[in-house]
Structures are given as structure tokens and as C-alpha cells.
Design goal:
seven-stranded mixed beta sheet; alpha/beta; 6 helices
Length: 170
Amino acid sequence: ILVRGSGTGALRWALMSVLKPGSRLLVHKAPIYPTTKVTIESMGIETEEADFNEIEVLRSKLLTMEKKPDAILVQHTRQKIDDSYDFVTVIKTIKDTLPEVPIITDDNYAALKVPMIGTQAGADLSTFSCFKTLGPEGVGLVLGRKDLIEKIHKWQYSGGSQVQGPEAMA
């Protein structure tokens, strides 16, 4: 689904499709991208960190968490200079360990520059800005599970919320 607000808007709608205020979101142990942090804080989402660089540590954390996360956010591009995690391995490890927990990927800065985006690697939703893929500015894209996309589409009922007409064609 095309959404307003570029990659930030896409990620916001993806988070809204799987989380409610007070939900728990597992994130990589690194600074959260500032615009994503605004969405997380404004939605009242609790975050918990795991080191995605250490797969066995991540797997152990997923298995021993007292309270399982309601969703997991994986940023495709590096968040810290010393990040070395393999995006595909992280997603596979999460899906193998907690298959029922939705994974959202932030594919900004990566889409069309990497062999695969999050949904192609097994994530439930992928998000990015269309202008980073030579599309129109201000438009974001959420790809993934049909039920979650339909949920976002239902919330985009107003013409003022929808990306349509010549803008969508661009």
C-alpha cells in the first residue's frame, strides 16, 4: 500500500497495524532512528533491546524473555558503525524461534540496493520511501502480509489519506 509520509509514514502505519499502546517491540541494541523513535514514543510502545550482531545471544534472548514481544523491528541498514549482523539470518532466527511474532523491516536506504528486502527474507512487513527508489517524494510503501495491508487500507478510507491518481501513477 502507498501511504503519505515517506518511509517514516510507511513505518508508522506498519507499526500501527501490529501494535497498540503499551505493546512491546523488540529492537536492535542501538540508537533507534529519530523519526521511528517519535512514532514509538507517541504510540506508547515499550521497547526492549537485543543484540542482533550475536545470533546465539539473540536466539537465547528470544527463548528466555519473560514476556514475548508483540512485534520485532529490524532495520536493514546499519545503526552503529560496528554492526555486523546478517539481515536474512536475523529474520530467519526470529521466525524459527517466535514464528507468531510479526517482523517489520525498515528497508529505507536499502531497497533496490540489496538482493532482497525484508518480506523477501521472511518478514511480515517491509517499509521504505518511494523517493529513494526514484518514486515521488512524500510517498511511502508498505509491503507484506495481506491481512496487515488490508488493515492499513481500511484505515486509509479518506481521500485525503490515500495516495491516488497521478501521484500514485508516478
